[in-house]
Amino acid sequence: MIKNSIITVLLLFLFISVQTCSNKSYEQKKLSEEHFKGLQIDKVPEGTVFNDTTYVPIYSEIYIKTKNIRFNLTATLSLRNTSLKHTIFVTEVDYYNSFGEKTKSFLSTPIAIKPLQTAEYVIDEKDISGGAGANFIVNWEAKTNVVKPIFQGVMISTQGQQGVSFTTKGVSISNR
User: What is the rounded distance in angstroms from the CA atom of residue 77 to the CA atom of residue 36?
Assistant: First the structure.
């Protein structure tokens, strides 16, 4: 009797453990739209002394095997304020396709990205409007010239058992 009870408890524990693990492995976290945005503000405060335009290469698709076969990617623009003290103000986040045509503007009003905060903008895997030569143009300002934010593109996708992920780094194009 005790042996059967122990076996029953162990099987029940094993079943619950397997169910919990399998549910977590397929659970995808759905985030609210607010997670991806900085703090919207009416206008950039007066007194900014530094402004920059940053170019971030993005790949909404890449070529595989031949120029006729493409692999679609989800692309994330990550705007990271690395300052411990200073807020940066982003006035434009625009998405351009391979032909240099603006296809999407992400901001209707400026945003403030507080110290150590990150704002993200996502191009869905099904959106191939940008092509292999897509990019983001980010215009931003700060009240000091010591801030050095990191603006990156993060591309990722899977098909079957094939997975692809890589990053790109933004570069200043203000003086070009």
Answer: 10
Q: Is 118 exposed, middle or buried (0-12, 13-18, 19+ CB in 10 A)?
A: middle
- pLDDT digits over 112-171, tens only? 999 999 999 999 999 989 999 999 999 999 999 999 999 999 999 988 888 889 999 999
State the Cα–Cα distance between residues 73 and 92, nearest whole angstrom. 23
Q: What is the pLDDT of residues 26-63, one digit of tens each?
A: 344 454 455 555 688 999 999 999 999 999 999 999 88
Confirm if 155 and 73 have CB atoms less than 8 A apart.
Answer: yes
* Gap between the Cα atoms of 59 and 62, Å rounded: 7
CA distance 31 to 18: 26
* Sign of the torsion formed by the C-alpha atoms of 134, 142, 147 and 84: negative
Q: How far is CA 51 from the centre of its chain?
A: 22
Q: Whole-structure pTM over 0.85, yes or no?
A: no
Domains of the chain (ranges plus CATH)? 34-172 (2.60.290)
Q: Which residue has the tokens 């980010």?
A: 138
Terminal CA-CA length for the chain? 82
